Amino acid sequence: MDYETLKLIWWALIGVLLIGFAITDGFDMGVGMLLRVIGKSDMDRRVMINSIGPHWEGNQVWFVTAGGAIFAAWPMVYAAAFSGLYVALIITLCAMFFRPVGFDYRSKIDDPRWRNAWDWGLTIGGLVPALIFGVAFGNLFLGLPFELDPLLRASYHGSFWGLLHPFALLSGLLSVSMLAMQGGAWLQMKTQGLVLMRAQSVTQVTAAAVIVLFVLAGIWLLLGIDGMHIVDMKPAGDKLNPLMKTVAYGNGGWQANYQQMPLLWLIPILAIVMAGLTLLLSRAESVLVFITSSLCVACVILTAGIALFPFVLPSSRDPNMSLTMWDATSSELTLGLMFAAAVVFVPIILLYTIWCYRKMFGRVSKEYIEENSHSSY
Amino acid sequence: MIDEAVVDLSRLQFALTALYHFLFVPLTLGLSFILAIMESCYVMSGKTIYRDMTKFWGKLFGINFALGVTTGITMEFQFGTNWSYYSHYVGDIFGVPLAIEGMMAFFLESTFIGLFFFGWDRMGKVQHLVCTWLVAIGSNLSALWILIANGWMQYPIGAEFNYDTMRMELASFADVLFNPVAQVKFVHTVAAGYVTGAMFVLSVSSYYLLKRRDIPFARRSFAIASSFGLASILSVIVLGDESGYTVGDVQKVKLAAVEAEWETQKPPASFTLIAFPDQEQKKNRFEVKIPWMLGLIATRSLDEEVVGFDRIIPDNEKRIRRGIEAYTLLEKLRSGDTSQETKNAFSDLQYDLGYGLLLKRYTENITDATDEQIRLAAENSIPRVAPLFWTFRIMVGAGFIMLLVFIAAFIQSARHRSSSHRGILYACLWSLPLPWIAAECGWIVAEYGRQPWSIAEVLPTYMSASSISRGEVIGSLTAIIAFYTALAIVEVYLMLRFTRLGPSSLGTGKYHFELTDSPRAQA
């Protein structure tokens, strides 16, 4: 397998990890956001938390592994993005601190103030990361103000407030609605009674919001934002660094890839269709709603990834220094080795994850929690 | 220029978050195996008391695990946020074990821990037991990969510098994987984790025995902890000695610092038991020495030398000068002169490039460094000696005290007299902090002893930092300290509450507080 193919494979694999994260940890975050919206009583909230109780730890590993994989496959991206978006990332991490402890500690003490405080923590732990990830993704289309010195040290010339461009905020809202929809769809599959009914209506509202925001973002992107394209670069299979190419604005912008391969338009269309189906299926008590919602999440992320391709981290300060999946990658040996590891482990992970979900399949009831009050969350 | 304050604050943040994270990790490593052992006893004997033990210690395990997960996320992303040049420079190698850790270990551990807590009535006994073992194996595998990554920072083999991409690149994965430093570090660290788990169970069980409640439960826990703990502490000490031997072989600077070896002694070197190292004068103000011992530990011979700083610093100065040449050649290569001659010359000197980079802290332009700057860089090419000297001795001291405690506990338990000798029970109870003290000191020896490098002899810590502002790091440091303090208070509160409650917290109706109608049974 040649270096160029490996670079492509790693673009796809990081995409898989991010989508895996958004689908699995996405519903945990969605449930967190909705905890106070759907969960009116302590028992409602316990049902909601216990529906994700056996899974959130495994789901969060998608996030951790995506971080590790970006470190290993795109070290320059890992370095420039996380130091550039320092404040945003620290806020995200602090919000995420609430989740493991929130899940585990909340129900250990029977005191309304204690539980209420953790419920707020879990809400923040769901809402804030979803919002910031969306805002960060939106900023990729606008370009981030970073540059590289001759030793390839990245420096960032913007502030946290600079990230809050209206388009980025729109993208943040899209991300929040999407994960809330995912959380709602999960609850439809795992709960019953009033919680289930409320989850049905919340999913409908958020699915509608996903359609509106996704279409709005698409129109904005087509009409209002200049995309970048590579004018000149050495062959993609060479050993490259991000200072060796010329990049310009224009040339069809971020929709250039779709114009070149019109078949790709199916993906954004599918995203809308799946959100629509999620909306419709939420009226019937169907387990399918979780599948359509997950597919919608996957298609939304793919739409953005394809639009940006081959860019990963465009630089608004000096577009030539933008990081792409061709020139911000690891060496051929590292990519090959990691690919081999992924080929071995990803199927195993999927197998036991599915086994685990199957073992825990079924709706969580109040009665179950009352009976197992000492061991449940 | 890189802001020195940003480097120092980032180091402080990394040290605090790593030390804090490492309060929870060793207990997870050890307790997960103890849970697996207890549940194996349950499956083999069928006695429900072993199931209750697994569930109760599992509850405490969960409280600890939640914080381990929480603080682990910070670790994963901190390389990018605060050490971005490091991430770029060595990500090609260092990222690999981290990514494999995620795929091979974290998924396993975290997926099955859900079933450990929630799967008791969803599957057969044996299936559940398998889940518990997989949690233990997963957490230990994650230790393996993170220590392969860390071992590479200490002894970076299997990598080469690439001037095109301006970074280190993987040359041999087998070298990284079978790095001798990583191997000894792994076994030493996981064994220390087992000791932590064992001491935790031993100490809490002693508390119940002293309070004379839930005796059968506490006795069985005591027995498992004392035998597992004795085996583990013996491994820690033996493997720690092995670790010392490897350090002596490949990390001469660290060894000299730990032993405060300012001057190279005539072999076999004597071991300095107590000393007050003075970094400025380069000597110890007061010393108690044991003849021959250091030579025996570090070289396992009577005629090999243990090199002191009197030789290390001048050697480093020479390497810094060669590093300047390497850097000059690198600039030539990067400006387009890629003639075979330049390439060969650079290739000969590339292992000294890191020493050249040490000068970045003193001058923007490495090639114009003055003699004074070179001398200063050489002086500071070794870590501060006194903190290393003392943390190492505290670690070893704590280890030997624990050895005595475990021996006593094991003998008592083997004679079926674990509850009879209150002195030993008190010793077990009060030894509770020792594994954590030892583990934190061990971390300091390993990581502080690596300074001034982030990757030994390849990349100086100073160069590794991100180009971020002081304000940003102060902000993140404040937020993290505030969060971590609050979380520590909550964690300790819950731990104390549930250890006091003991197995009564399971709600089975069989244990102490449930039998005596105490109001505290509600929880």
Q: How would you explain this protein's 3D organization?
A:
The complex is a heterodimer of chains A (377) and B (523). Chain A has helices at 3-38, 42-52, 56-73, 75-84, 86-105, 112-142, 166-190, 193-224, 256-260, 266-281, 288-308, 332-359, 366-371; strands at residues 146-148, 154-156, 228-232, 246-249, 311-313, 323-324. By secondary structure, chain A is mainly alpha-helical. Chain A is globular. With 523 residues, chain B is mainly α. Chain B has 19 helices and six strands. Chain B has helices at residues 4-45, 48-82, 84-118, 125-154, 173-177, 180-210, 215-250, 252-258, 293-299, 309-334, 340-349, 353-357, 371-379, 385-414, 422-430, 434-448, 461-464, 470-501, 512-515; strands spanning 159-162, 167-170, 271-278, 283-290, 453-455, 459-460. In chain B, the strands form three sheets. Chain B has a two-stranded antiparallel sheet with strand order 1-2. Chain B is globular, with a radius of gyration of 25 Å. The chains are: A mainly alpha (377), B mainly alpha (523). Chains A and B meet through α3, α4, α5, β2 and α12 of A and α2, α3, β2 and α18 of B.
Main features:
heterodimer; A: 377 residues; mainly alpha; two-stranded antiparallel ribbon; B: 523 residues; two-stranded antiparallel sheet
What is shown here, in short?
The complex is a heterodimer of chains A (377) and B (523). Chain A contains 13 helices and 6 strands. Chain A has helices at 3-38, 42-52, 56-73, 75-84, 86-105, 112-142, 166-190, 193-224, 256-260, 266-281, 288-308, 332-359, 366-371; strands at 146-148, 154-156, 228-232, 246-249, 311-313, 323-324.
